Fold:
Amino acid sequence: MPPLPPFAPDTRSPYPGRYPMTWEDIERSLVREAALRRPGTRPELWEELVKHRAMVECVLGSVNRIWLAGSFVSDKPDPSDVDLAYLVDAEVYAAITQPEDLADLANLGDREWCVKQGMRVDACILSLPATVDFRDLGVTGAMAAGDGEIFQMLGLYDEIWQRCRTGGGLRRGYVEVAL
Structure:
């Protein structure tokens, strides 16, 4: 995978777009690199993220992709948390029906619950569309039921991850990790 590009000077984050990286690339470039190794929160946040991911995968069995964003994907030496979205295959997401599993996922997607558990993680867990063949998207009735709403949620989070809190409309990039 290509490395994370240089950060834009105005946002201190990647230029707008979605950048594919491996899990190992993320650890190397955003946690271990010499430029970011100065005392700060990154190593602790990484360990909390690793723990959180393990808990999510314990409930779901698998995660397809992760979108990482916010100050963790910047040159900020002390990000306060990790913002991310777990993207889960539709059939895996739909198979979670047990009340205990649903409650666990709700907790793992609740920032306050995560902080109480010692994880500064702000996560959401999203289903991927069941429609796999892109050609089916334009055919009336060919898209799987509910996929319209799923595409809207994915678009919403794509837009959220590219926004900056400050800077009057500045945009930033984020990272996609295929698992």
In short: The radius of gyration is 17 Å. Residues 17-129+141-178 form one domain.
